[in-house]
Design brief:
- With 289 residues, this protein is α/β, with parallel strands linked by helices.
- 39% of the residues lie in helices and 27% in strands.
- The radius of gyration is 30 Å and the shape is rod-shaped.
């Protein structure tokens, strides 16, 4: 098809679209004769609005294309607080390098609240510990996070390389709320060994328990990921054995919902940077093929 043929095709297509619009409106936008085409008064009045609509649509389509090609946009991430303390900052820094300008809204909440946030579409992605399997959630295992004993350097057990649950018999434990998965795991093991809690303090968050330990108030049983070696002067993290109790950390998304490009990029980043718990300190490792 030559240039004249292309022009004729475009004109015919546009004419048909305008005629359909006129039929829908019940108004004439163009006066047509065999020699010329002119806008009607209504057409001239509508032209600025039409231009605005076209410009806005072009801009909107461009933004969507940019989102698709460059993972632009914002998303909400729900995460248990212990992950937000150490794992997330490093991931977010890497994400910022790949997707500069994107904004992440972070919901730090208990594990069951993270699951509900993903199920209710309040968050696109969740990071939580193992819980009841839900048919509408896709769970990707990340790493096993063992419970450890945390105390100050002047505690009677501080010099040990490892301690057992039986050693907790005399420990003045700072405990986390019953709503936390950590408390469920801990209570079960203590009861199994016939140990009654000897603690005067209950807190809502792992970070609060660590602050109290650092202040010399008591000691605590917490997930290893809540404290890196060297984070707090005079505070030790000791392996807890007989048995080693691990919580499983998983990446969550809704089964029936597509992730936005921004969330998909973050989801893939976490999958690439898979976490391992071969030692008591989870660290980011590259997947091997």
């Amino acid at each position: 098809m030559d240039l004249n043929g292309i022009q004729a095709f475009v004109v015919t297509a546009l004419t048909r679209r305008v005629q359909k619009l006129e039929a829908y409106l019940g108004l004439k936008l163009l006066d047509r004769t065999t020699r010329r085409v002119e806008m009607t008064a209504v057409g001239r009045d509508f032209l600025p609005q039409a231009r605005t609509i076209v410009n806005e649509m072009t801009s909107a389509v461009g933004r969507l294309k940019d989102m698709s090609q460059h993972a632009k946009g914002n998303f909400t991430l729900a995460c248990v607080p212990s992950m937000a303390a150490h794992m997330l900052p490093q991931l977010i820094r890497q994400y910022a390098d790949v997707c500069p300008g994107n904004r992440i809204r972070l919901l730090d909440a208990a594990s069951f609240e993270v699951r509900q946030a993903v199920l209710n579409h309040q968050a696109e992605i969740g990071i939580a510990v193992n819980g009841e399997v839900h048919p509408d959630l896709i769970e990707t295992p990340l790493f096993d996070d063992p419970l450890v004993f945390i105390c100050r350097s002047n505690h009677p057990l501080h010099s040990k390389d490892s301690v057992t649950w039986a050693d907790m018999r005399e420990a003045d434990l700072i405990v986390v709320s019953n709503f936390m998965a950590t408390r469920v795991f801990m209570d079960y093991q203590l009861a199994k060994h016939g140990i009654r809690l000897n603690g005067n303090y209950e807190v809502q968050h792992h970070a609060t328990a660590i602050n109290l330990v650092a202040a010399g108030v008591g000691c605590a049983i917490l997930p290893s990921s809540t404290l890196n070696d060297g984070d707090r002067p005079h505070v030790r993290k000791i392996t807890l054995t007989n048995p080693v109790v691990k919580r499983k950390v998983a990446l969550l998304r809704h089964k029936n919902s597509s992730l936005s490009p921004a969330a998909q990029a973050f989801f893939e980043l976490i999958q690439k940077e898979h976490l391992t718990a071969k030692s008591s300190k989870p660290r980011l490792m590259r997947k091997t093929k």
